[in-house]
Amino acid sequence: MVSKFHSSLSEALSLMLNDSDDHDVIIQVGENQNIKEFRAHSNILKARSPYFKGAFSAGWISKKDNMIEFKKPNINPTVFEMILKYIYTGEVDLTKVSGENILGLLVASDELLLEELLNHVQGYLIEKQSTWIEKNFVLVLHTVFKLPSCKKLQDHCLESICEDPQPFITSKDFPSLDKDILHGLLKRDDLNIEEIVAWNHLIKWGIQQTPGLGSRNNDRTKWNNRNYEALKKTLNKFIPLIRFTAISSADFFDKVRPYKAVIPYHIYEEAMEFYMKDTSPKTTTLPPRVGKAQIESKLIKPKLTNIIAGWIERKNVKKPSLNKKYKFDLLYRSSQDGLNIYTIQNKCSGQGPCIVLVKHQESAKIYGGYNPLGFSCQEQWCYTTESFIFSFENGEDIKNKKISRVNSNYYNNAIYDGSSYGFNFGSSICMSSDNNVYFSNSGYYDNNIVNVLNPSLQYSNFYPEEIEIFKITIS
């Protein structure tokens, strides 16, 4: 048996780094007022980094009194200190490091060919720094799209944007977005955005990117033909990515038609023919964007409907790429229709698959259930393999979500359909004739029900602040 004593080895190497009297390398990092020198050992650097092995072997370095002198002005001292600690000890602690420095560490890891560190940092950004990434999408995108080794983070950014594009496209940095990244986004069929919104922000981006326009000349009424031609040149490869047939005729007239001069003639004519004759375009044949689950809810933001739709498609992932389009039509809202099981029955019976949303009075949590059969008031237990109950921490948090599917041993007890209930998901979540919502662990749904209903499972019932029921149309 081989005994391993890595901790003592790491401690000894850490002492070498901190008390490097026998060093043979001086590395100067940073620039301007932020410059710092580090002392290190060439053999350790070469053993741990293919970059340093190549650099020290190929004569990229200068020597003074047998001391290797090396400069890396593009790496800041805070980042390089973390790199040296990793090289010497195999340790890195990112818990108190700023997002900017973690991103800098990612770039430096790629340059220094530290694959293990790069993969760790990439994963850390995705798992622990997603909020910071969302606030700095343009910076992160412009950085990682220069690094082929960061495809995982590239995909994470694009999928996050497609899931909820609004904060990204309305950010102050959006007009500076790289044209190739924008082109890649507009090509995606899963970009969860109304087409007229995509058009409006493409125009704004194009105006900022076009010489002679922008903040000094953004009043279209003052443009001349040369201005329109310049904007047309900027947007030339983007216009074919807009699904004009998904834009209403009113929006086309008000918001697209004024920019007729920047749209290629055949694309504009085909769009006009579609609006005037209902004739499908012959050359611009991009399909409608999928995964746009729209909802007019007071309880949840539209981005959460994609999570629900993903559960319907059994895609238990953070940001599902949907195969179909989902439409959520409001059937019942207690604040406007009255809290009454008979009103629910009258409005929802015979409408097909439905989603129920419930707001607790004393919590931000949203509880709900998916009924794939619909309501029919037939006084019976109903068989289905597809129903589930769920909860969100609040109306917009896509991370802290919980789902419990019907127990495979109790498909016959998935839904109870009867006149004494507004809704009843296997007695796990139900609304009774006293207008209270009841929770219980009936055993008809899987063990995750404890997490779904926590902490309210300890309370047998409550009077809901709001209930919404939506009919789901899938195409």
TrEMBL record:
Signal peptide: none annotated. Pfam families: BACK, BTB, TLD. Residues 298-473 form the TLDc domain. CDD domains: BTB_POZ_ZBTB_KLHL-like. Residues 23-96 form the BTB domain. SMART domains: BACK, BTB, TLDc. This is BTB domain-containing protein.
